[in-house]
């Protein structure tokens, strides 16, 4: 038995969507087996890792001073290489039941704007975590494949991937990205917009987790209702005391409008740079939205209103990127063609 066959015997190949908000891991033959927040908690005194994923995220805004709760992926790229390596090792080992002799082939999705230095950091992180081969695939391409778009066809298709840290818009044809735009405004920026709105409108200080809950329950891009409300708890900025108030969907639509307008402008700029023949294809096929942002109420209607083009969400928006990367584990020739080259 050769070393290569030994590796294949002991390990299962993986696809990883290393996102700002969440990390998803797809195992060949099994599908998505991990969907955890991209968060790690460390003891700042001893350097010990205390928690990774969901348990670490639950510590956000609640931990004592000696515990650092870190998001090692910022705006879609690695901002803390050591924490990223620790997180990758953890997720890869978890997929193989903590066995150490595992050397999987790994496909990792990366943002369009990633630099060569950042690419090397991602590859080295996966290799340090035990990968025997590492392929990088651009997130819009992976999202398009995961959404079922025919990326190899000469007929063009358009994908908008609204993640946690970045929004990426791409027109794809013949297995390549013909034109694209990206902006470091996405799900996290929507959370921040809600935090700032609550400060300015209600003198209420809320945390990141509360802002995310508001976005999920009341987030709206257009057509918000005054009748749909939720209870929000936070600290009154004037009296300094905990308070409770009601917020409406219409208010949150107002809070998100400026951030969403920046995303819409990015879509329009991409369309302006699209070759005429591919623009004709997009008129026929429409635009597909993927990523967690595709779940925001009215986002498709807003983009359709502003562009005049039909807009549809991917079948599984949150998982589109990792599903697309996972499909490439069975199509190595296409993977080698579309993977990011050094």
Automatic annotation (TrEMBL):
Q: Does the keyword Protease apply?
A: no
Q: Name one GO biological process term.
A: cell morphogenesis
GO MF entries: ATP binding
Keyword field contains Nucleotide-binding = yes
Give the UniProt keywords, A-Z.
ATP-binding, Cell shape, Cytoplasm, Nucleotide-binding
Primary localization class, coarse: cytoplasm
Q: Sorted alphabetically, which InterPro entries does this protein's record hold? A: ATPase_NBD, MreB, MreB_MamK-like
Q: Where in the cell is it found?
A: Cytoplasm
Q: Which residues bind ATP?
A: 20-22, 212-215, 292-295
Q: Which domain of life does this protein belong to?
A: Bacteria
Quaternary structure, from the entry: Forms polymers.
What family is it from? Belongs to the FtsA/MreB family.
Function according to Swiss-Prot or TrEMBL: Forms membrane-associated dynamic filaments that are essential for cell shape determination. Acts by regulating cell wall synthesis and cell elongation, and thus cell shape. A feedback loop between cell geometry and MreB localization may maintain elongated cell shape by targeting cell wall growth to regions of negative cell wall curvature.
- Name it: Cell shape-determining protein MreB
Organism equals Candidatus Schekmanbacteria bacterium RIFCSPLOWO2_12_FULL_38_15
Q: What gene is it encoded by?
A: mreB
């Amino acid at each position: 038995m050769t070393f290569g066959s030994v590796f294949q015997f002991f390990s299962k190949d993986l696809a990883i969507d290393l996102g700002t908000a969440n990390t998803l891991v797809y195992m060949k033959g099994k599908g998505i087996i991990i969907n955890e927040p991209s968060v790690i908690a460390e003891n700042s005194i001893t350097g010990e890792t205390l928690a990774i994923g969901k348990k670490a995220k639950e510590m956000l805004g609640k931990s004592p001073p000696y515990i650092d709760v870190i998001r090692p992926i910022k705006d879609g790229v690695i901002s803390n290489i050591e924490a990223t390596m620790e997180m990758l090792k953890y997720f890869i080992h978890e997929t193989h039941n903590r066995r150490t002799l595992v050397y999987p082939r790994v496909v990792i999705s990366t943002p369009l704007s990633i630099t060569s230095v950042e690419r090397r950091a991602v590859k080295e992180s996966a290799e340090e975590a035990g990968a025997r081969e590492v392929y990088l695939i651009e997130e819009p391409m992976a999202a398009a494949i995961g959404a079922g778009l025919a990326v190899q066809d000469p007929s063009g298709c358009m994908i908008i991937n609204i993640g946690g840290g970045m929004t990426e818009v791409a027109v794809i044809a013949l297995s390549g990205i013909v034109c694209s735009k990206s902006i470091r405004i996405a799900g996290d920026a929507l959370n921040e917009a809600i935090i700032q709105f609550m400060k300015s409108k209600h003198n209420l200080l809320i945390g990141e987790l509360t802002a995310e809950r508001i976005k999920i329950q009341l987030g709206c891009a257009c057509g918000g209702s005054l009748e749909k409300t939720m209870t929000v708890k936070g600290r009154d900025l004037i009296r300094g005391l905990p308070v409770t108030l009601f917020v409406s969907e219409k208010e949150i639509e107002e809070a998100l409008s400026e951030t969403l307008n920046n995303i819409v402008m990015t879509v329009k700029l991409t369309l302006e740079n699209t070759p005429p023949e591919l623009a004709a294809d997009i008129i026929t096929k429409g635009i597909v939205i993927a990523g967690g942002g595709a779940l925001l109420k009215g986002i498709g209607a807003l983009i359709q209103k502003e562009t005049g083009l039909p807009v549809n969400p991917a079948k599984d928006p949150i998982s589109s990127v990792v599903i697309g990367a996972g499909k490439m584990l069975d199509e190595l020739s296409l993977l080698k063609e579309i993977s990011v080259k050094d």
